[in-house]
Amino acid sequence: MRIGELAALAGVTPRAVRHYHHQGLLPEPPRRPNGYRVYGVRHAVVLARIRRLTELGLGLDEVRDVLADDAGAELAVVLRELDDDLARQETEIRRRRERLGELLAQAEAGTLPAEGPLPPALAGLLGALPVTDSPSAAKDRAHLTLLAGDGRGDAVLEALAPVTQDPRVPALYERLDALADAPLGDPRIGPLADELAAAVPDAVIAAIPAEGPVAAAGAYGDAMLADFAPAQAAVVRRVMELLAERMRR
Prior knowledge:
This protein is mainly α. The protein has helices spanning 3-10, 14-22, 41-55, 60-68, 73-109, 120-128, 135-144, 154-159, 169-177, 189-198, 202-207, 219-225, 230-248. It folds into two domains: 3-68, Multidrug-efflux Transporter Regulator, Chain: A, Domain 2 (Orthogonal Bundle), CATH 1.10.1660.10; 115-248, no CATH class. The longest helix has 37 residues, at 73-109.
């Protein structure tokens, strides 16, 4: 048989046959004087077996191990590992579909946060915050999304719950917005920083992890400050200093 005939018989493409040759899975037959390879039935049997194994989800390295073990013991081990892996994938897919169902329900009810899919703790917090068109509040919401994802910020998010009911918060955001074009020496900077820091509950300070975005005063702090106008950044910098002092107590 020529390579095209072999490929058709085994249900693969000639390109796949050449790839299996290159990977060492299918021995190459000797060439005739005219340069053509001539395949026998044994090649077709091996090729069909490779196709069946790859269709099961085995990688080529695993197929190579199976082909090297004529007794079939290696195949049993590989199939068990494959089954275990598929079971893990099923569990993960089920979990993701449950989460997707929750998000679809929020979207249909009009309660999906503007930030998109979020962990439940963060979605609950953002959903409870007062509705406002404050640019500073929008930045704060964006910064809060950095707390989600690895579980370390969940305690901080829970501790922030009282802030959503604090009547001072909307006015504090408005005062921060008002500093967008103010000079660095504006006398409103210090008092606003003190009030913003005082609005952060002690439970939040206790929940801040030793490592992570919340506690980072270096690269994260610099990046966050760069997101504000100079006078606003001065307020935020002072708030960070005051909170750091409370953490050290």
